Amino acid sequence: MSQASPTMTTAAQAVAASKVYGAGDTQVVALNQVSVAFAAGQFTAIMGPSGSGKSTLMHCLAGLDTLSAGQVFIGETDLSSLNENQLTLLRRDSVGFIFQAFNLIPTLTAIENITLPMTLAGTKPDQGWLDQIMATVGLADRAGHRPSELSGGQQQRVAVARALASRPSIIFADEPTGNLDSRTGAEILEFMQRAVRDLGQTIVMVTHDPVAASYSDRVVFLADGAIRDELMSPTADAVFDRMRALGD
Amino acid sequence: MLKITLKSILDNKIRFFLTTLTVTMGVTFVVASFAVADSLRDTFEGLSADINEGTDAKVRADRPFGGIDDSVPLPVSLDYLDDIRAVDGVASAAPTYFVFDPPVYPTDGSGNEVRTFNGPPTAALNWTEDEVLAQMYLIEGERPEGLDEFAVGPIEFADFDFVIGETYTITLPEGTREMQLSGVMQFGFPDNAAVGAVLTVFDQVAIQQLMGFEGVAEEINVRAEDGVTSEELVERLQAALDDDVEVITGQEATDEFNDAFGSIISVIQTVLLVFAFVVLFVSTFIINNTFNIILGQRIRELGLLRAIGATGKQIRRSVLGEALVVGIVATIIGLLLGFVGALAIRALIEAAGGSLPDAPLPLRIRTVIWAVALGVGFTLLASLVPAYKASRIPPIAALRSDGVGDEGNAKLRYLFGGLLAVLGIALTAFGLFGASGTRNVLSLLGGGAVIIFLAIAILAPLFAGQAVSALASPLPALFGSTGTLARGNARRSPRRTASTAIALTIGLALVTLVSVVASSLKESVDRQLQQVVAGDFLITSEDGNTGLQTNVVDALEGADGIATVVPERSEFVQILGEESQLDGVSLDTVDQVFDFQLSEGSFEGVDVATSIAIARSYAEDNELALGSTVPVTFFSGVSRDLSVTAIYDEDAFYSYIVDNALLEELGVVRSIDDVVVNVDEGLTEDQGRAAIEAATAGLAVNIQTRDEVIGSFKQAIDIVLGIATVFLGLALFIALIGIVNTLTLSVFERTREIGLLRAVGMTRRQARRMIRWEAVVIALFGALLGVLLGVAFGAAIVGAVPESFIDRLTMPWGRIIVFVVVAVLFGLIAAIFPARRASKMKVLDAIATG
């Protein structure tokens, strides 16, 4: 059966999650009663065509957006029970983010960007862990550089390192390779893969690129705000086929 | 394009509101300045027109030199009355007396003295048979006749406790007198009062006797018969009378009066306009900065417009168009608010102890023209460079995701800034040390200051980055990453930080400058008075500026407990050919109350009728020595050659002094300025005061110790300082708006960045704190730079003014610290709105933007 069996720890899950924008004639249903769980220590890709609701699902799971109905959990925490400030603290302490672009604060150096969630929390980063991450992403010699002095790939590696640095219970990545050329993109994806396999991280990635999705352990397919399909240990071709099937 | 311009304004209401507000305040100030000055002018012109209304010609003593505001009027002999009446064409002629702040005044039924303190001006005057000639009309009761009757004006009658027919106490120079109130008389027109003056009216005989005008008049007013013009009348009178009288037309008298008061009002107007200019000047920086930032943000939009076919010229017009709308709207609102501003200025001056007539506030075409020229002009000026830059944005900018660096040609910029700085410093230095004439000096200093401020605005980006980094260096340690972010934001665009801070810099530089000069002046006055004045008490009239009668001296001399009495008086004379004030003391005893540091000759035992004592500095400037002859011409026309009998070193008070006896003999002023008194040795301060009070019982005097005199001097300086600080505070307020504007625009610009920070766990509180500390750092930078400049300017001015005026530089450190603290508070206040905006930002929208 699927690896998301009840025996594994669930890092995040949505239960009958609905999100509706607008009202009346202009009403748009972005998520329609979606129930899905993300196992800890797994690299999951959420795929779907534009407008399928994949970004909305991720935003709601990450506590960036609120549901119209249903529940989302990070670990045991029901996000709908939290106020704005509690959500912020939850993001800071338990969630990591990697965005498509504009991941870094231009006035901070690479290392300052990486430790930002912890310094915002006022906690001291674990230096050994930090050194390990810096070595893994190959940025040890670039720690003091500002984002403007880094290449696009290096910037994105800093973003990944930041997501990892605070050992969040889950990392959400939104098209992390969307702005990169294919080789640099592959580097980032391999690195994310290693973070899951070697370091035990949990990553949920939204993408529409079958190649990117092929780096994951599990692909969840979304269309019209509902889960349509899923695929374990995917290959790029298999993902591509499923996508085409969804489009039909 | 006009549509795009207007849309841009409508889409950014807050920005539009804030930039408009800065210009509005400047225009308001300009309009208020003119309105206050015009209102004063109207009042005085109305007064002078009324005084001379029915008068075709005026006969008065011929003044040898000086204007009507230089000295008391020279009396003209009443012997001329018959000669005047005999001239063909004269309908009537009457002696007139119009004494402002008279030494004669009534006390009402409730014991209130009718005197000038801070109320409307008081005057004593006479009525004449020919009502039109003196402009005195009976409103109620009877005209006063003889030495036992008086009348009051309508203001007095309404505001004080007076009943016609009752007897009241009149204070006279030599005591008091009981007189009956005969009626109410009004000056100006029969049906409406011309001026808000409080009047005490006597008949001709009474005013002559009570106020010491026996045998003379201040002026003789003449009315022509029908068919005789003023000019013809003047000609005939001139021919019939001796050379020692002067005959002028009523119109000439009016003009003379207006000129005299007009020059004082012009000074007030100029001072107010200078403050208004400061406000507009500071606004210009804010507008320029705002337009520059907007330009950076709209670069893609403007690039797109260029890409789809807008010409550079159209883009330029669009930016200038927005500026024009800001300028016009600000000017219109400013014109309306100007009257509120004028009332505020009046209230401020009154709060400081001054008084301005409560006349209507006129709006002149000239005011409107200035308001439009300054309001629209300054706004357009501020947007010229941004508009030019906007027109040069290439179409490709639409496709670039990053903003275009707005640093321009740095080398050229700094070269230009450097040249301006040198020019500004040169002008200032020439103004301080090389130029002569108050007007020249002030123009050079003002021009120099403007250029130096411009230079600093241009050069500040050069050091703003490092300076801000240094100032913000404790922030990361204090507030962790929030502090690090605040520091990073404050220094990320040195140019923007500098332009935002410069408004605060200018405001604080001026406030500090004024404070430094004021505190140095206070210290100098303090030292001079401490060192030079040896007398125990200073006795003045109760209001401090109307002078005393000689009976005070008579009362004090020889009284119990009084050791030395030195009256001081002054006359307007020509000395060594120059018009000047000549002061008199009692030479015999002057060294007991003043320490003038006599170095040659002697004060005592000289022939007081021909002696003059001079300061060493005056002696050196005019190459005089002991025994030199100093010719003095008195206002009465009499000249006398005085001989230098003493030279003293301390020139802080007087460049030259003579004995009172000489002034009594040849001068025209009857009153004395004040009396310096030494009490018997061994008396305490209270005992001394009691002795003086006993001696002057019944006389309206004010008794102050030396320390009290020093205190009131300092208080007067503090009042002027306070008014200047309030006016300059407006510039600080505008600087505050500037910080709000910049931060709001910056927050908008950093939407995605703030969204990211919020996404990765920055709390709202932390977001607010980040913006707040950025504002504080910018404010602190502006404040410190301003204080530095203010101290430098202040020190330069103190160094340049004559030693006799300010002889030491004193830094008001306490005040300066307060200024910096206030500036930091301003930063905190300015951050409130932008910080709220940043913290309320929806994380998702922020991330989705762009």
Q: Which SSEs are present, and which pair or pack?
A:
The complex is a heterodimer of chains A (248) and B (850).
Chain A: E1 10-21, E2 28-39, E3 43-47, H1 54-61, E4 69-74, E5 77-78, H2 84-94, E6 95-98, H3 110-114, H4 116-121, H5 127-137, H6 152-165, E7 170-174, H7 182-197, E8 203-207, H8 210-213, E9 218-223, E10 226-232, H9 236-247
Parallel strand pairs in A: 3-8, 3-9, 6-7, 7-8
Antiparallel strand pairs in A: 1-2, 1-4, 4-5, 9-10
Helix pairs in contact in A: 5-6, 6-7
Chain B: H1 2-11, H2 13-51, E1 57-61, E2 76-77, H3 80-86, E3 90-96, E4 98-100, E5 105-107, E6 122-126, H4 131-134, E7 136-141, E8 149-152, H5 154-159, E9 167-172, E10 175-187, E11 198-202, H6 204-210, E12 216-217, E13 219-224, H7 230-240, E14 245-249, H8 250-297, H9 299-307, H10 312-351, H11 365-391, H12 410-434, H13 438-472, H14 474-492, H15 494-532, E15 537-541, H16 551-556, E16 562-575, E17 578-585, H17 590-593, E18 598-601, E19 611-615, H18 616-621, E20 629-633, E21 639-648, E22 656-659, H19 660-666, E23 674-679, H20 685-695, E24 701-705, H21 706-749, H22 751-759, H23 764-800, H24 813-840, H25 843-848
Helix pairs in contact in B: 1-10, 2-8, 2-10, 2-11, 2-21, 8-9, 8-11, 8-15, 8-21, 10-11, 12-13, 13-14, 13-15, 13-23, 14-23, 15-21, 15-23, 15-24, 21-24, 23-24
